[in-house]
Amino acid sequence: MAYSSIELTSADGIALLTFNRPKALNALNSSLLEELSTALDSISQDETIRVLILTGAGEKSFIAGADITEIATLTPLGAKKFAQFGQSIISKLQGLAIPVIAAVNGFALGGGCEMALACDFIYASEKAIFGLPEITLGVIPGFGGTQRLPRLIGANRAKEMIFTGKHLTAAEAKEIGLVNKIFAPEELLDAAQAVAKLIALKGKASLCAAKQTVSQGLNADLATGLGMERDAFALCLANPDAKEGTSAFLEKRKPVFKGDLNG
Ligand code: CO8
Fold first, then answer.
1. Which of 29, 196, 242, 251 could form a disulfide with 67 if both were Cys (CB 3.0 to 4.6 A apart)?
2. Which of 159, 185, 200 is the last residue of a domain?
3. Same domain, residue pair 87 and 212
């Protein structure tokens, strides 16, 4: 499918999705969100894809937020519908079975920060800027920021960001646990590709089981989470990748994982 506000490519089990409205700093309008939704469906149906990387086109921005020209025209009911629409697509992103890495190359503000929060981890350029500036516009985050940010960095730090709307540098974002690693701008995508390559060499079934167990366990009490882990561990043993991984270790060779989610 031909997209106009995003680009989607894939090679060697790694998909790269680029937000591509550089003139508006890749702001999220309805048509971009529609395209993202379609792209996420095609990624989840493609058995060959094991990792997804998200980044922004141009040198300045990952995503500078939801499109303010659209927000400015919304009625309260329209705002609720738009928030629901954005939330559903960002939840679809978070719910992808495969690991997702945000390669944040510049502004990740408002809906852009919320998009990155739905990824499994964030690599950032030294030039990246994070923030939830909605309060400055007289509104609040509406694409999941009030919920995902405190779960990731704690309520006190999240509230400081949300109440002040302040921009954080990449270093500040790393200090509070929002960002895993920081790279020079020209090295960011290579670094994301390198870690994606490392992940893509692993078995798809165990990758997806690991992601699902960590993500769902965070919303459960410890005993329930441990139960989820036992079940997922047992299910891994039903996949040929477990045989391959353990045999490869005992035979002192590198494993070659060929199993898919069906075994
Ligand atoms: N929406 C629409 N256009 C934008 C956006 C945006 N979020 N951000 C930047 N642009 C446009 C600018 O209007 C400008 O367009 P033009 O050239 O036609 O004037 C172009 O991108 C370049 O931007 P600037 O000239 O402003 O570039 P600067 O380098 O001077 O500044 C900033 C960059 C700091 C990123 C600045 O553009 C900015 O502050 N942008 C807005 C950031 C923001 O407030 N984001 C949050 C938006 S609200 C949100 O995300 C809510 C999500 C939940 C919605 C729930 C539904 C109701």
1. 29
2. 200
3. no
